[in-house]
Automatic annotation (TrEMBL):
Gene responsible for this protein: tpiA
Name of the protein: Triosephosphate isomerase
Any one Gene Ontology BP term: glycerol catabolic process
Pfam families in the record: TIM
Active site per database record: 97 (electrophile), 167 (proton acceptor)
Catalytic reactions on record: L-erythrulose 1-phosphate = D-erythrulose 4-phosphate; D-glyceraldehyde 3-phosphate = dihydroxyacetone phosphate
Binding site for substrate: 12-14, 173, 212, 233-234
Naturally occurring in which organism (per UniProt): Lutibaculum baratangense AMV1
Stored Gene3D superfamilies: Aldolase class I (3.20.20.70)
Length: 254
């Protein structure tokens, strides 16, 4: 946690979810009515955004997209603009997820262009960074992550327009997590980088941890300095698991 910074627990449904998933979302909403000490967000596949937005209303769970194109509109088959996501009810968009960087060859420069697009549309950009296992083994984790952060985030970021999500690639969907000391070190180095670049604003930009976050390990991870919430994949698909992670903040504040 960072003193004075309200945490964010965001769920990334990735390529999961059909209409029946509305029931899971409704169950999350019902349980989110009590303030859990953290902002909550679900990033469903784009096909569900408008439906979940109609259910969510002005309730306690915000919605986000999982990617966007840098342009406003045009001949880009299969792509979605940030404006379209905003129109469908999103207030944020995940950008530069390692699955986009790996599966679609996205570079940090392309991610930065998408961040500009998100800001143009009034969306908060959730920018993902993280090292592979080989890069960690080579002792390059800090260098890789700070390089991605520098290249993927344009000038002018604030705590309202930017959220960073640190996700070690080898921890995603594997059930493995870094040691608390490694998480502390990585988040602290990113905080220093954000402060050096954005001054006072960099102190309040949220840095989420992502990678095999579960109800059982959430409280320990979220208690680490400069861990301002979580980006949750698999465990965000079920209301019990997602709200179990959000409940870590009740433990921490209680
Ligand atoms: O965006 C979320 C992450 O990739 C984490 O996924 P996971 O919680 O399934 O490990």
């Amino acid at each position: 946690m960072t003193p004075g910074v309200r945490p964010l627990v965001a769920g990334n449904w990735k390529m999961n979810g059909l209409r029946g998933s509305e029931r899971e979302f409704e169950a999350m909403l019902e349980r989110a009515r009590a303030d859990r000490g953290a902002d909550l967000m679900i990033c469903p596949p784009a096909t569900l955004l408008m439906r979940l937005s109609a259910i969510a209303g002005n309730g306690p769970i915000a919605l986000g997209g999982q990617d966007c194109h840098a342009e406003v509109s045009g001949a880009h088959t299969g792509d979605l603009s940030a404006e379209m996501l905003a129109d469908a009810g999103a207030t944020a968009v995940i950008l530069g997820h390692s699955e986009r960087r790996q599966d679609h060859g996205e570079t940090s420069a392309q991610v930065a262009a998408k961040v500009e697009a998100a800001w143009r549309a009034g969306l908060t950009a959730i920018v993902c960074v993280g090292e592979t296992e080989a890069e960690r083994d080579e002792g390059r984790a800090v260098e890789v992550v700070l390089g991605q952060l520098q290249g993927s985030v344009p000038e002018g970021a604030t705590h309202e327009t930017l959220v960073v999500a640190y996700e070690p690639v080898w921890a995603i969907g594997t059930g493995r997590t870094p040691t608390a000391e490694d998480v502390r070190e990585m988040h602290s180095r990113q905080r220093e980088g954000l402060k050096a670049r954005f001054g006072k604003a960099g102190e309040a930009i949220r840095i989420l941890y992502g990678g095999s976050v579960k109800p059982a390990n959430a409280a320990e991870l979220m208690a680490i300095a400069n861990v301002d919430g979580a980006l949750v994949g698999g465990a965000s698909l079920k209301a019990d698991d997602f709200m179990g992670i959000a409940a870590a903040y009740e433990t921490l504040s209680g």
